[in-house]
Amino acid sequence: MLFAGVDIGSSSAQAVLFDGEKIVAYTSIVAKPVPQQSARFVIDATLAEAGARQEDIACCISTGYGREKITFAADNVSEISCLVKGAFWLDPDIRTIIDIGAQDNKVISVTDDGKLKDFVMNDKCAAGSGRFLEKIARTFGLQISDYGPLALSAAKPAPIQNSCPVYVNFDALCRLTEGWTKASIALSAANILASRLINASGKIKMVEPLCLTGGVAKNQAVMRSLDGLLDLPIRQLPVDPQIVGALGAAVLAHDRYHHKVN
Amino acid sequence: MSTQNVQQEVTPKSALEELLTLPRRGENPYIQDWKANGGKVFAYVCSYVPEEIIYAVKGVAKSRYLPVRLGATGCTKTEDADIDLSRCLCSFARSTLQMGLDGEYSYLDGLVYSSSCEQMRRSFEYWRDKLHPDFLEMISVPRTTDTQAHFEWYLEEVNNVRLKFGQKYGLLSNKASLNETIKIYNRFRELMLELYALRSGDAPKLTGTEALNIALAGFNMPKDIFNEKLEAAIEELKARPAVTGYRARVLLAGSPIDDPALVEIIEGTGALVVTDTLCTGRKYVEGMVDETTDDPVRAIAKRYFSKETCPRMMDGTDARVAYVKRLAKEANVDGVIFQYITFCDNHNIENIIESRSLEKDGVPTLTLEREYQPGDVGRLRTRVQAFMERINK
Description:
Chain A is of the alpha/beta class. Chain A contains 8 helices and 9 strands.
């Protein structure tokens, strides 16, 4: 018997199959224009990887911005609660989660029994989110996976103040003409993202251990910058940080199926 | 081919149904009737404009003045307003100017502004310079409320606007008409507070969305007719079963809300808005005008000046913090949702102060940034849904 979680984000989509004890299979894809398409595609790919069929899924929960449109899901839960569920299942010590997605950032605090305690999200603005780094990468013709290594190769960051994904291009191009390297500019953008995130955490008291989730958690330059800004050690989760939301949804599906509360 | 004309039996709407579904602006039948009878309609923009001084103008029966609150629900673009008003002004100011430019307020004979915030003050200038309404006045409101001198200033401003109506149209309110109007408005406030009591008790009889629709009807109808309808609607509400199936009771605070769509988004996640501290809500109906004085204009000004203040005032922060806490406690809420329109700095900063103080007391809070037109439904729903999951315990 399998339990599924699908996380349909604005930039990527993930599915996780869970058997009650371990992750059976997972897939992450670039999001398609329509949430239902992403969901169908990502769940089919994950079922194929597990050698399973749709009928083997006893319960499915959807999350992410496209969560309300997924017809094969029994229910939808916000990504904030799913991240708590997923991170706590992976590591019950976790008390703070920093999630950096394509357009939303979240700082989440977790209770001792693994419940959502409080959260803050960015305002109506993608400044300092994953979209911001994507924009720089696109300007430079970089694969997002090459972003971290390039930024870390810089001797020092270029002077960039702008954190707006729209306007940062002007700043970046301006610095390039002044002779700054792409690496310096990429490093500067990673630093801006990290410091904005720490400042935005506002009312949330960050308690250790702390983990990072979301696609940007794979960016080594952002990780190093956050590590430098945070007083707390960052704990590595034993899975791809991008699938924690989908995993949480799958664990929730399991719990709901077995009538555990929440 | 023959067309069949089926005469349908139309059941008249109950008072409650009518208040819940009253059409907006030029489609509003009460405004249409008022105009058809030769009456004038004036919009005001903020709860520091005392409506009584407008409603109390008594000419012959056919030339009475109806104050309505300026709103722009349904405005979908602000591209023309953006030419004059920077995109760094709030979308409410820009939406009202846009609808003015679009001719959406052609039923209005004039507007009365107050200098409540810079956003609206600046939009006033474009009404003056571009739209040239027949009657346009501004009440300058002091930024502190604690001295007699400031009150006298406000009173003079209010009285000046009252006199301007007389200069312009030759009609002036008098002591008798003002006293009569005060009674109507006080009765309105009593009834609205009764409606609040029906929401915030243990067994709420109506949703926050319904309550806002009723309040919107009240903004746009002659208050004496509205009072009769509301009395009947309250009886209907008392007789119906309580609202069930909600996940959490919340208080709604922050920037003015006159669009039920936002409350619908919030309540669509299982929240029930049982009370608020909005200037389009509770703050609008609290505080009676003294009916026993010999100087009704002074009594009216006193009520508006000493009501629960707007965060645009330099003083009163402690009182406003105490106010939100008191209402949250009285309505036994599970959490407080703050919201502000982008660039509404007064409410944005006030929200931070109030929410920190509530969280310190163990009351969960959420703050939403939004536009006047709640277009980004998904982003708002995610935040409110997560907040519901947080306070679901």
